[in-house]
Amino acid sequence: xxxxxxxxxxxxxxxxxxxxxxxxxxxxxxxxxxxxxxxxxxxxxxxxxxxxxxxxxxxxxxxxxxxxxxxxxxxxxxxxxxxxxxxxxxxxxxxxxxxxxxxxxxxxxxxxxxxxxxxxxxxxxxxxxxxxxxxxxxxxxxxxxxxxxxxxxxxxxxxxxxxxxxxxxxxxxxxxxxxxxxxxxxxxxxxxxxxxxxxxxxxxxxxxxxxxxxxxxxxxxxxxxxxxxxxxxxxxxxxxxxxxxxxxxxxxxxxxxxxxxxxxxxxxxxxxxxxxxxxxxxxxxxxxxxxxxxxxxxxxxxxxxxxxxxxxxxxxxxxxxxxxxxxxxxxxxxxxxxxxxxxxxxxxxxxxxxxxxxxxxxxxxxxxxxxxxxxxxxxxxxxxxxxxxxxxxxxxxxxxxxxxxxxxxxxxxxxxxxxxxxxxxxxxxxxxxxxxxxxxxxxxxxxxxxxxxxxxxxxxxxxxxxxxxxxxxxxxxxxxxxxxxxxxxxxxxxxxxxxxxxxxxxxxxxxxxxxxxxxxxxxxxxxxxxxxxxxxxxxxxxxxxxxxxxxxxxxxxxxxxxxxxxxxxxxxxxxxxxxxxxxxxxxxxxxxxxxxxxxxxxxxxxxxxxxxxxxxxxxxxxxxxxxxxxxxxxxxxxxxxxxxxxxxxxxxxxxxxxxxxxxxxxxxxxxxxxxxxxxxxxxxxxxxxxxxxxxxxxxxxxxxxxxxxxxxxxxxxxxxxxxxxxxxxxxxxxxxxxxxxxxxxxxxxxxxxxxxxxxxxxxxxxxxxxxxxxxxxxxxxxxxxxxxxxxxxxxxxxxxxxxxxxxxxxxxxxxxxxxxxxxxxxx
Length: 827
Fold this sequence. Notes:
Blueprint lengths: L1 H14 L7 H26 L5 H23 L2 E8 L5 H9 L15 E6 L4 E4 L10 E4 L3 H21 L8 E6 L2 H4 L11 E6 L9 H7 L6 E7 L5 H18 L6 E6 L10 H23 L4 H5 L3 E3 L2 H10 L4 H14 L6 H5 L10 H14 L2 H48 L3 H47 L16 H18 L11 H27 L7 H4 L3 H16 L8 E5 L2 H62 L9 H4 L19 E16 L5 E19 L2 H63 L4 H20 L6
Parallel strand pairs: 1-6, 1-7, 2-5, 7-8, 8-9
Antiparallel strand pairs: 2-6, 3-4, 3-5, 10-12, 11-12
Helix pairs in contact: 1-2, 1-3, 2-3, 2-24, 3-15, 4-11, 8-9, 11-12, 11-14, 15-23, 15-24, 16-17, 16-21, 16-23, 18-21, 18-23, 20-21
């Protein structure tokens, strides 16, 4: 009966066959071997166990059966998620439409991607728009829609949101929508070679301006197992804009998190070069230069992924003509005609002259053969075949790596690890169940507990050391200066800047780890200081510099990318205060000593001070907004770094504990032990203004006095006397000094961020270590219980045949080893 159940499950495992890669076959084979081994072991040990063990054995077997069934289902029905993102005006939504084979996502000159739109493959068409906070559009679910219905509804939703966002009258969350559609990427069996029941969905992510929305952020955080397509706008030629686009590429990669290896980069709108006389050369030059620039920019900001970045796949694409090429072959005559007219009007230059010469001037008069010739030609020159080739390779290479480890880890956590532990510990307990062996083994367990505890403490300290070094350095800085660091750091001497010293400490820590057990995993710690670059760029170059320039020149210069993407209310507040300061003729270049004597002068001085404080308040709001977005993005790298270290730490523990206690089958579930709390959110607390001090001044006052003359007569005489008057005195600082003070405050804030990140790392590590200690203690406790139970059984039966239990113990060890290897996926 048992063998029948095992063989049925094995058959289910082997039904799934995929050409995506032989990886799935290797995994199913390894799981099948484990299943078969457990089935054999289960029957062998049941024949030897006393009846008192049957209930425990069958409970364990039932858990194993359920876990295998769930694993079989997950392996045979994996979920492939393609997440699309891109730079400004890169045609990302058009690319999604191309993958779908029709226009269902809104496309416009302005950025339309505000919320997340998920396209799930389905034989029937429907649209679901989620109810979101403050929604000003119709929410609900609609079935049996036409392509035009889906497009129009989404278009209205996006426009309503963008309009509400511009009006700033209410708080509106970004829209969230799901389209169910029989899209081309799956419907065409020639495009992908996936396991038969693979579920495929396309996740169209929002533009960078909207990723911080709470609803969007929660969806994006679930993209860890997604394969990503990042589009770049090839049509942009302005140098400043190109520089911004390259930074957008980096920001998009950071938003997606994890390694760039799971990302495919598409230089879209490449057809723009066809207008050039020597277009093959200009296209080739652009492609080579842009690929170099993208890799160089990514390498500079994501040093830990240098190897992955060097191997990145970057491809050329013209998504819109490729989409129109697909639509030209539609069985729907109206769609085919519309696509033909669009190609003839917008992409006529892509059609070879020999084909054009054979066609009527009006596209609606092209016959089916003519349309096919045009469609095939446009398909080729838009690099659609090349795109599909690289997309398939990208999926083949990365999809198993992203999906299988999580599936197998869940299987191990639910039952496989418990089966391995029980099998090894139970057989070894019976081997040591004789009186003399039992006492010796009890002493051995006590020693094992002590050795493991020392081993965990040693490895835990190694893990904490880097961050304690950072904390000690911060403590030293504070003790030396009495604060985060001295204002003397405003000088050009950067050698004494604690931030630079901290960065050097982190770099030395990384180098030490590279030489030790953690080796290349140490590179992940680069994220501990990389965030400074983003903060420096946003705060200094994108916010403070335009502000100072505006005050200096008397003209508004607030056109940086960060400011243009900021909250309009905050930007308007900054602009208004700058205009007021300009109108008040604030002495930006040299400062000024003021003694306000009259009530009007005092009023003007207080107004000037208030405006300067308002300026700082406006800057603080903008900086906090920008820095929060940067830190949210950068701290995901910090979280990934900690996860990488903790995962490898577990591997070191398992290996070390395996040497200390080879017969206890100590192993840990990554998913069960993972505890990552939220990252701290540091804020800038900027201050400005100037001190107004009450003073006095002497005013010449004409007074009339009675004075006696020579003949003792009295007469009125006018004289000048000086009488004290109150004044408001102030030294107006020049804008250069105010800017230095702001930079100093920024530097202080960065020190605090270092401190909070180090504290967070140590806190998370300590929590993790406590869970590891608790987990391993439970494993040793269970072995003690099993040893005691086996000893009691030995006393009852008086003897146990080691010729039976030793082979069973070896079977158990082999079972554990195969469970450990099961599902290993190599890139």
